[in-house]
Amino acid sequence: MNDMNNKRGVNLSEWIASVSTSWYVLTALMIIGGLVGQLLAGTFQPLYESSATFSVTIDYTRTGALSDIQEDQAMRGVGSVIFSDVVIQSVFAELDNLIETIPPKKFFERASLDRTDFRWTMRFRDENPRAAQQAVGIWADQAERVISTGLEHALALDSYYLVLDGYTNCLQRAPAESGEGDICGFENSGRLLDEIASLSQTIQREKEASMGLFSHLSVVLVEGSTEPTREARYGRGSLVFSGSLIGLLTGLIGISLKFLLKKEHQS
């Protein structure tokens, strides 16, 4: 019975031995596959990448200790502004005036934003190295402008909140009866309530204008865009690896078929 099973089945050790003796075939096929992948990569139009980096710092002397979640929220807020519709639409308007038109679809396909610790790096790739530099430079300029304005509104928002807290506390300490008399510098409680309502509307506008930025942040452009001189080899390594892998699999399949045919002939 065991002899019959050995004849019908495939001995794994024999197959491994067959593969190991044909290592040179596998190696050659892997090299050929890698070269084919390299040739295919060479047919792609070269892309050049330019980048710019913002550094973000938090004034802990004013905020006190922050949790990791709070720091992450502050950082994500900056990233959201950099890739916000306000910034990107401004970028499109500027790009139309300086270089060949970059359609929105192409911009979003080739633009990226990466975070490393307390830094945000914006990147853009294009066939024209000058276009890549200009795109990132304009993007950085517009992001810097919007962030600066947003932080100004965030600081104003903090001030308005302090004033609102003062008015609210004063109103709470005022006499229950609504009579005439000086209340926090106002003629009566009614005038104070009107001011609180008006201030609340102002706070809402400042909150929208701040774009969710944390007031105690400092955002500085530490690395401006430069014209790239070397091609960004995106995807080339993957093509070479895929070609080598296909070569390996092709070799294994061929060796296995040869092994099975040999076993069948022997049986």
Give structural notes:
The strands form two sheets. This protein has a four-stranded antiparallel beta sheet. Strands 4-5 form a two-stranded antiparallel ribbon. It is elongated and about 110 Å long. It has a domain at 48-223. The two termini are 15 Å apart. The chain contains ten helices and six strands, in the order αααβααααββαββαβα. It has helices spanning 2-8, 12-21, 23-42, 60-63, 68-82, 85-98, 104-110, 129-173, 189-210, 236-266, and strands at 48-58, 111-116, 119-126, 180-183, 186-188, 217-223. The model is unreliable at 1-8 (pLDDT under 50). With 267 residues, the chain is an alpha+beta fold. Strand 2 (111-116) and strand 3 (119-126) form a beta hairpin.
Short description:
The chain has helices spanning 2-8, 12-21, 23-42, 60-63, 68-82, 85-98, 104-110, 129-173, 189-210, 236-266, and strands at residues 48-58, 111-116, 119-126, 180-183, 186-188, 217-223.
Rg, alpha carbons: 33 Å
- Tally of contiguous helical segments: 10
Give the end-to-end Cα distance, rounded to a whole number of Å: 15 Å
- What's the order of the H and E elements? HHHEHHHHEEHEEHEH
Low-confidence stretches: 1-8
Task: Output the structural class.
Answer: alpha+beta
Mean pLDDT: 82
* Structure summary, number of beta strands: 6
SSE inventory with pairings:
Blueprint: H1 2-8, H2 12-21, H3 23-42, E1 48-58, H4 60-63, H5 68-82, H6 85-98, H7 104-110, E2 111-116, E3 119-126, H8 129-173, E4 180-183, E5 186-188, H9 189-210, E6 217-223, H10 236-266
Antiparallel strand pairs: 1-3, 1-6, 2-3, 4-5
Helix pairs in contact: 3-10, 6-8, 8-9
